[in-house]
Amino acid sequence: MPFFAPPLSPDQELEFLKNQAGMLKQEMELIEARVKDLENKKAPA
Amino acid sequence: MKVCVSATAPGLDAQVDSRFGRCQYFAIVDPDTMECESIPNANIAAMGGAGIQSAQFIANKGVGVVLTGNVGPNAHSTLQAAGVEIITGVSGTVRQVIEAYKGKKLGSPVSGPTVASHAGMGNSAQPSGQGIGTGGMGMGGGMGRGGGGGMGGGMGMPSSESYPSGSSPQPAVSKEQELNTLKEQSGLLKEQLDAITDRIEKLERK
């Protein structure tokens, strides 16, 4: 099933990229929080 | 019958890629001979339809079983329609999961998707049970190098399809495995973020 995306203007691309960057940062924060959580659990009680 | 494993690199010793539609390589293995054909996934940076296209590609390769970390609703329904069984929640190397499959040590085929649509694109969809982790990346790596072309709309569209929450039949992953996976994914996300940031800076300078 081919997927055709309309071309983006530079402004649209910029907005898109900023949104993507925000999502990636959120994702990284969630991962880091989970890593910390796991590492805390690993420490001997 | 051939078995497809989503992988992060070519070869039998590559690690399993937790994504299916946007995995880096498809390792198509004959479990009897362990002959492995590694095919780069052309859909890794697709703006949409990656799951469906990957599933169609795999089905056309004569694969009978897919072993992966997670599968979204589009890929799941396409594979199911093609009669391909899907076993999720696997981790380790391609060789290890094939051996586990041969030894019937893996779980049963899943009856539904284990992540939402576009989970591999960087939204906050999380696989149930294991928290963060197995989705979340994939599209950023190709972006920023596109020079402004080829990136379409449709970003972040949530799926209205439901998927089982809290009941996916994934085997337990050890803390160490989860930590390793998370750290690996964090590194990949950082690379993608850096690429996007570079592209943003270039666009803003124009």
Description:
The complex is a heterodimer of chains A (45) and B (206). In chain A, 73% of the residues lie in helices and 0% in strands. Chain A is mainly α. The mean pLDDT of chain A is 77. Chain B contains four helices and five strands, in the order E-E-E-H-E-H-E-H-H. In chain B, helix 2 links the parallel strand 4 and strand 5. The termini of chain B are far apart. Chain B has a five-stranded mixed β-sheet, with helices on both faces. Chain B has helices spanning 50-60, 73-81, 94-102, 175-205, and strands at 2-7, 25-30, 35-40, 63-67, 85-87. Chain B is of the alpha/beta class and 206 residues long.
Keywords, please?
heterodimer, A: 45 residues, mainly alpha, 73% helix, 0% strand, rod-shaped, B: 206 residues, alpha/beta, 5-stranded mixed sheet, 4 helices, 13% strand, globular
